Amino acid sequence: MTALDPERIKVILATDCGSTTTKAILIQYVDGAYRQTHRGEAPTTVEKPFADVTMGVINSVTEIGELAGRKLVDDDGRIISPATDTEGCDIYISTSSAGGGLQMMVAGVIAEMTAASAKRAALGAGSIVMDVIAANDGRRPHEQIQRIRDLRPDMILLSGGTDGGTKDKVVQLAELIAPAKPQPRFGSDYEMPIIYAGNNEAQTDVSEVFAEGGFDLQIVDNLRPVLERENLGPARDKIHDIFLEHVMAQAPGYDKLMGWTGAPIMPTPGAVGDILQTVARIQGINVVGVDIGGATTDVFSVFDETFNRTVSANLGMSYSISNVCAEATMPNVLRWVPFNMNERELRNHVKNKMIRPTTIPQTREALMFEQAVAREALRLAYKQHKEFATTLKGVQQQRTVGDTFTQEAGGETIVNNMTLDLLVASGGVLSHAPRMHQTAMMLIDAFEPEGVTMLAKDSIFMMPHLGVLASVHPKAAEEVFDRDCLIYLGTCVAAAGNVKAGKPAFSWSFNGMSGEIAGGEMELVDLALGETAMITLTPVRGVDLGNGPGKKVEREIKGGTVGVIFDGRGRPLGLPEDRSSCQSTVQGWIDSCAMYREEEETAAAV
Amino acid sequence: MAKAYTPGLLVTGFREHRCRRILPIAGEVNVSIGDVVTANDVVAETNLPGDVNPVNLANQLSMPASDVMDCVVVNEGDTVAVGDVIAQTKGIFGFMKTSITSKVAGTVETISPVTGQMIVRGAPLPVQVRAYISGQVVNVLPGEGCEIEANVAYVQGIFGVGGETAGSIKMACSSHDEELDAHHITEDMAGAVVVGGARMTAAAVARAREVAAAAIVSGGIDDADLKDMLGYDLGVAITGREQLGITVIVTEGFGEIAMAARTFELLKSYAGTEASVNGATQIRAGVMRPEIVIPLESTPEVGDGKRKYEEGQLEIGRPVRVIRDPYFGIIGEVSDLPSEPHVLGSGSKARVLEVKLPTGEHAIVPRANVELIEE
Questions:
Q1: Residues of A with CB below 8 A from B374's CB?
Q2: Which of A40, A93, A104, A247 could form a disulfide with A64 if both were Cys (CB 3.0 to 4.6 A apart)?
Q3: What's the pLDDT tens digit per position in A319-370?
Q4: Which helix H or strand E contains A532, and what residues bound it?
Q5: Confidence (pTM)
Q6: Element (H, E) at A480
Q7: What is the CATH number of the domain that holds B242?
Q8: Is residue B1 part of a domain?
Q9: Residues of B with CB below 8 A from A344's CB?
Q10: What is the rounded CA–CA span in Å between residue B245 and residue B174?
Q11: Pick among A355, A369, A601 to test the B interface (most B CBs inside 10 A)
Q12: Domains in chain B: how many in total?
């Protein structure tokens, strides 16, 4: 495509190639503003017989073309550009998360220090960490070497030592890895990328160790230049680059797709992160966003302008659904389901979804089960995110050597549900829930927001598209985000602190209405989309709604398609262990929040 | 009109099948273009570098790493046996020397003056790549491997565990919907590719392993049985490296599900014939499904080469398999393709199709929940 002149871009076609579905949107300049006008989707075509990601792109774009009455694909199966009055688009852009997960091995000298930092860098870049090799990990050298040989990582991150410190330990680690000659997952002609992010004075020695061949050594700044400070950015960026260049490029047809786009293809999570940071900055708020896909769940947070992203590589709703059930355990999944299900059959359903990832629930029972799995996937992903997003990350906060030894987990989390202002949902199971009440409840149950939190969802999973669009046409991205992207579900008011079951937790009043919420109860009150109200919240002693235990809260809240959800269940959220009382409790919450009301009326349609 | 792309598994009585046989690292290719090979022939071989044994001489000699080089008595590239002296201190006036001996046999690969560490590499590990299918070598990739082509009957499964194997097909069940249990497995199935009908029970798999069958193939399996067999709960469908002593392939899915009648009949028609089987499955990038490949001695009669239906296209009359509840596993034919989205029992709106079930009933099913029966 030709060079871009934003002024001349009036028709924008964007796709996101997910691991399950390829989603396309059309943005057009209508009546003086950019609007998202049509959308289409098709299964991602990495499977045989097509084994070409561009087939899914063309299918989704063809669907848009039919809906828009605009020919977007020519007879040779290529996207038409530039646009005329009736045909084509001015620019085609795309994000992609096809290509599966990123699998890494990390190594550091001390397990709790440089190896832990390396692991955080790898996790932050979205990888599955297959193993962490450290000089003090309790394994003998030949066992470590055997382990390295058995793994088939996409790349290795090697760290160790502070800048200017002793270098023999990190060179020794390199000497273990090099002769082990780890084989990459993809093909024998692929040189194993090694990222070295350790002691800067050992760079030459490490280079010499890997000089013999079969490795693609990339040197970046030390991720632990001094003991008290992490510097994860350069290593994470390099991991990202290698992921795009090597791993994602394994998705069939990806090379062709790169030739079609008018801007570099962005990884889906990167694009979502960009747009969320923009929102947090413009509105001056703390934001958490989640994108739950087929293979992975991405969690993004911006707290006090510090951005963090994690990718839970094996928590997803299709390819990884079986892993969610294994990791969360089936009893934890089933606690969200208010009726009995045969566990043996369920296990088979889960595996069938894993091997045929594009299927959708046809019955309400199947839907409720998938939403139960989603709660657990989201809960686990958020837990991982909180462990990752600590005071040491990103902002390079200083801490003393004493702190280093006392904080095994690596710092306090900066994720604070009480100061969270906006929780944004995206990903099929959240965005495509038949009723937005279901989306709201999945978010509340999994993330357990505290105090007053606004809930929203990405209307049609448009954030990735807008993230990449922002890099080429910020004005169009901002306009579409404002008008068409987020759908506000409403506000959640949740009690934290000493909530007692059945006893008053807090009272509320707004717009001339008032009520009282008891411990364990939920209540839904209408406040329509676009409306705002001043709410007064009076918690009982020991219960916190944002201003401290027992302190009154007065603030503005926004309405949404769901309304205001009062949550008196307390934090952390506990469900009865007894299966029968758990079912009746969950059914009570479902009824209070009108989660499946409309479906009961329409279920007879099939 | 947009194509309603719906992936399906390939089950065919004839196809020209080509497979690449590649070494993990460069080595020697034993075949030439035009050679006729059988499944067990070694077509390429190499030696993987041997085990690596690090010896921390600096620690063992209690001296700085930089001094180690003065005490090392072997050179890089030297062969050492167990007990050979590899380093020795000078001692005091030639006495009280400390000697370090090698605990493994191998070759001295590196001696590092930076870390004081010596790497001794053990004997190379031979790796052989077999032909996997009987056929003709049509391409040789020097130093890497070759490509073999054969006319085959081909069955793609939906999921499998275990790697490549081969054996003659033995039918254990008499119909496609008969459950495969232990009593179906007999001693004479040693080395065979055992074909059942519907779900294979845990007892059947155990019995097949007991009689040393090469592979077991059936319509379905219970996930609980798979978990017991593997010893862990499979999280993501990336398989093929399991060491179970048997390759397991399911053609339809998990649970009580019968093998597609056409698949069963095809396998039955080749009972007694040698088949190559691979359970490796990868449902991610570079999708891989398990397969049963049956090289043919003669080319069967084929039609005019024209497909009745366009590949991957949903069309009225086309046979499909429903792959999700409440009709999971049922094979029917497309009877209508309404263009408008339909509200499902779940409350979701989705594009659907109407399937004529074997009972004569018509069911509305989301388009995402069917797969084509490809040929």
A1: 49
A2: A40
A3: 899 999 999 999 999 999 999 988 888 899 999 999 988 899 999 999 999 9
A4: strand A532-539
A5: 0.80
A6: helix A474-480
A7: 3.50.30
A8: no
A9: 222-224
A10: 25
A11: A355
A12: 3
* Composition of chain B by helix, strand, coil, percent to 5: 10, 40, 45
A76 by Cβ neighbours in 10 Å (0-12 / 13-18 / 19+) ranks as: exposed
What residues of A are in contact with residue B371 (Cβ under 8 Å)? 356
Range of the domain at B250: 9-16+151-295
- Torsion, Cα A498 A288 A236 A128, to 10 degrees, reads 70
- What's the token pair of residue B154? 């081909």
Tell me the backbone φ, ψ of residue A483, rounded to 5 degrees. -95, -35
Q: Does A354 contact B236 at a Cβ distance shorter than 8 Å?
A: yes
Q: Does B340 touch chain A (CB under 8 A)?
A: no
Distinct helix (H) and strand (E) counts, chain A = 19, 24
Q: Average pLDDT of each block of 10 consecutive residues along chain B (375 residues)?
A: 55 91 85 95 88 86 88 92 92 80 90 87 87 95 92 95 95 96 97 96 96 97 95 87 92 91 94 95 78 86 60 82 89 90 90 92 93 71
Residue B283's φ and ψ, nearest 5 degrees, are -105, 70
Of the candidates A183, A319, A360, which has its C-beta nearest B284's C-beta?
A: A319
Q: Return the structure tokens found at B168.
A: 């003659």
B209 touches chain A (CB under 8 A): no
Q: Describe the strand order of the beta sheet including A306-312 as a list of residue ranges.
A: A306-312, A297-303, A287-292, A422-426, A451-458, A486-494, A563-567, A522-525
Domains and CATH numbers, chain A: 6-98+253-260 (3.30.420.40), 102-250 (3.40.50.360), 269-605 (no CATH)
Contact A100 B7 (CB under 8 A): no
The residue to which tokens 């390199």 are assigned: A174
Q: What is the CATH number of the domain that holds B89?
A: 2.40.50
- Chain A, nearest residue to B372 by Cα: A49
Residues B256 and B351 in one domain: no
